[in-house]
Amino acid sequence: MLSALLTAGVAGTIGGSLYAGLSPQSQIFGETIIAGRNPNAFALTYDDGPNDPVTPRLLELLARHDVRATFFLIGKFVRQRPEIARLIAGAGHLIGNHTMTHPWLVLASPARVRREIADCSAAIEDAIGDQVKFFRCPHGARRPDVLRSIREMGMVPVQWNVTAYDWEPISAEKIFANIEQGIARNIKHGRGSNILLHDGGQNSIGQDRMASVRATEMLLAKYAATKKFVTPEAWT
After folding, report:
1. 11, 49, 121, 234: which is deepest, by most CB within 10 A?
2. What is the per-residue pLDDT across 114-139, written as a single tens digit (0 to 9) for each?
3. Residue 93 annotated to the active site
4. From the candidates 52, 102, 198, 199, which is the catalytic residue?
5. Which residues of 5-24 are buried (b: 16+ CB within 10 A; e: fewer)?
6. For 31-235, which CATH class?
7. What is the C-alpha to C-alpha distance for residues 42 and 186, in angstroms, rounded to an integer?
8. 151-177 residue pLDDT tens
């Protein structure tokens, strides 16, 4: 009996730690920005860029609808494509830090965590000439000390509450359906929608994310005239 209780306790502890460290909306390990209480407010957020030719195509689409979005950039790709980072900034979008190489920060040493954050900020700031104030953990994975380091380095951690699952090889229609499902859930609970999409991929520049661009186009066609598109700044 005792053995069973201990086993259940260990399993519960592990399960709780996984939830705290990996669930996008968990606040157990520390406060992160999710979304506000206005269900008509949407934030389009894109991870893993800059990535050509996808990011410039996405910028053109957002410009046509006069919508401001957020781009969490990987530092090593910014070093390779600083001109795209400048295009993003020049178009008025918010740029955030997504680490230098996109590691699992929960498995990295504290020194590696701080180096990943600092090197990415340096790459972005060298490219755009402005300070980075927002951060998204790769995979959403964090520990208490990771969140503490982010704040000590002058940034605000941002998670999400709508997952498009667009890193998988799925159609624009399926991506859009995933987003719609998340939006409906948030509206039911009286929350804004912080939508996770991808304009790049962690492995290399040149990833095909055109399905995500098309899904964004579908989303804007439906909501641009009736919803308020914001960036995480609105929820600080």
Report:
1. 49
2. 999 999 999 999 999 999 999 999 99
3. no
4. 198
5. eeeeeeeeeeeeeeebbeeb
6. alpha beta
7. 10
8. 999 999 999 999 999 999 999 999 999
